[in-house]
Design a protein that fits this description.
About 35% of the residues lie in helices and about 30% in strands. It is α/β, with parallel strands linked by helices. Strands 6-7-8-3-9-10 form a six-stranded mixed beta sheet, with helices on both faces. A four-stranded antiparallel beta sheet has the order 2-1-4-5, covered by helices on one side. A hairpin with a 2-residue loop joins strand 1 (about 1-10) and strand 2. The mean pLDDT is about 95.
């Protein structure tokens, strides 16, 4: 388990992360969400020990990550910029061989399977790859790495719909067949939300939401009906958005509704539906703006 305690990060006088406290459990798929510049990449780099200048503590199974190299061998940060400029004249298979030598839990057979699945030619030069295929190479490294915790920063960049789907299928496969944990930072929420088991939303340098997806689904609700009746029933609830279309109001909440409250809304002619994670994210971050 990764445990983050009282984590703070500044760039000069700019507070990027403010007193973060959370845990990352083994074998789960996490969604890390937030608007541009909110600190998602910084957080992932801190967790993977690529940034070591911060206050607070990051532990992996009770070992302080930045003091223990064996901890960092188990946590891997993946982004589209994995291949340095100095190696862009090399071939795909050379980069993969280099990665296999650097990563102690590398799965060579799985790497070969992934090359076939994603139809990536290992004999091609890196400089001849499209932006999407360069990112795909980084994702293959992440998937085949065997790292217990793999942190993906915007993994869908440049990928077509088919390869995005295949990538998410591989993430689910690893979660089901091993204790590997994936943290996915993405702006394409509607495509990824079906695989998330836990969701962390960053806003204003802090954690705005950190919940199990089943809890989120039970609390993220949209109620459509007569505004006056709806608001009377929901007067003590956490209302995150209100919209009107003529005489009809759409009220979004992030809160529990008990049986009695649901019955009263139904008797008032209101319709209750679940909000998608993307709509919840938009409402929450707009509310906090």
């Amino acid at each position: 388990m990764i445990t983050v305690s009282n984590l703070n990060k500044k760039y000069g006088s700019n507070i990027v992360l403010n007193n973060l406290n959370f845990e990352i459990e083994p074998g789960k798929i996490y969604g890390l969400l937030g608007r541009n510049g909110v600190g998602k990449t910084t957080l992932l780099k801190i967790l993977s020990n690529q940034i070591v200048s911060y206050t607070g503590e990051v532990k992996l199974d009770e070992e302080i990550v930045k003091e223990n190299q064996s901890s960092t061998d188990r946590i891997l940060f993946i982004s589209e910029f994995m291949v340095p400029d100095s190696m862009k004249g090399e071939k795909v298979n050379t980069i993969l061989k280099f990665a296999s030598n650097m990563l102690p839990n590398w799965d060579e057979d799985y790497k070969d399977e992934l090359l076939k699945e994603f139809k990536l030619n290992p004999k091609l030069s890196i400089k001849k790859l499209s932006k999407g295929n360069r990112n795909l190479l980084s994702l293959i490294i992440g998937l085949a790495s065997g790292a217990q915790y793999t942190l993906y920063d915007e993994p869908s960049v440049g990928l077509d719909a088919n390869n995005r789907y295949k990538f998410y299928q591989q993430i689910m496969k690893l979660s089901e067949t091993s204790e590997r944990t994936s943290i996915i930072s993405t702006h394409i929420i509607d495509e990824a939300e079906n695989i998330f088991e836990e969701v962390i939303i960053l806003e204003n340098s802090e954690i705005l939401l950190n919940e199990d997806i089943s809890n989120i689904q039970s609390k993220a609700l949209s109620i459509t009906g007569s505004k006056g009746e709806i608001l009377r029933i929901l007067n003590n609830k956490n209302i995150i958005s209100e919209d009107s279309i003529g005489a009809v109001s759409i009220v979004s909440i992030y809160d529990e509704l008990n049986f009695d409250e649901r019955a009263r809304l139904k008797n008032a002619g209101a319709e209750i539906t679940n909000l998608s994670l993307q709509k919840l994210f938009i409402h929450l971050t707009n509310k906090e703006a």
